[in-house]
Amino acid sequence: MPELADSPKVLLLYYSYTGQAKKVLDAAAEVFRARGCEVTEAPIEFTDPRYAERFSRFPMRSVWPEFLGMLPAQTLKRTGDIRTPEAVRTGSYDLICIGSPTWWDTVSMPLRTFLMSHEARPVLDGKRFAVFVVCRRKWRKNLAGVRKLAEKKGGRYVDGIHFTYPGGELPSMLSLTSYLGTGEYRDRYLGMKLPPTNINDEHLEEARRFAGRVADKVFGRAPSERP
Ligand SMILES: Cc1cc2nc3c(=O)[nH]c(=O)nc-3n(C[C@H](O)[C@H](O)[C@H](O)COP(=O)(O)O)c2cc1C
């Protein structure tokens, strides 16, 4: 569908280290674009001198210390340095889709930093937002945290979805850390059979269905879906 001058504006606002949050938002964006929306991407850059280096390369150089090294700051819900794209300061959006990976059972430092910054209010104030959480298993506190922070900046919560990866606590942790440390998917690690990790095609389908429901709520039903 061609975009019109007054087509609804959607902002994809996220932090994504390995690209999983970006993947689900990109799938959602296909749906918004098919409904005539103008979609703008706003990836947050993590620039904090204490932590950014480890997230500037993939795979991680030394996965356990680099991964565990975020635990104290995350537990204390610390903020750090970030850089945001121009689109965050220049545009006005009707819907903000927030992509939020879980870090140590809560909102990642880069996204928390943005949501607590002075830049967040002009983007969110009076605007509707939807939350897309990606994680291995722990989504509740992340989703609740993003919702609370965005509402504090005047945002109006529409809906949220979470995407989790299969397997129990230990196998899914080993599967993820093996991936973060090597950039490859392995069937076995330290003698244990590993479940798959990261976003898969089913998740992407789910993201598209969710985006359709969010678009119905925010922009009204698509003409083809009206009774
Ligand atoms: C530093 C760090 C801490 C993490 N902590 C958790 C956690 O506590 N619980 C969980 O379910 N997933 C955790 N994860 C897994 C991420 O949520 C998962 O890898 C997600 O796919 C990352 O999305 P991204 O690629 O968009 O950044 C952690 C990942 C990193 C890098």
UniProtKB/TrEMBL annotation:
Which parts of the sequence belong to the Flavodoxin-like domain? 10-215
List the Gene3D superfamilies hit by this protein, alphabetically: 3.40.50.360
Can you tell which superkingdom this protein's organism belongs to?
Bacteria
Please state what the protein is called: Flavodoxin
| Organism (species) | Mycolicibacterium obuense
Q: Which InterPro entries match?
A: Flavodoxin/NO_synth (IPR008254), Flavoprotein-like_sf (IPR029039)
Q: Name one GO molecular function term.
A: FMN binding
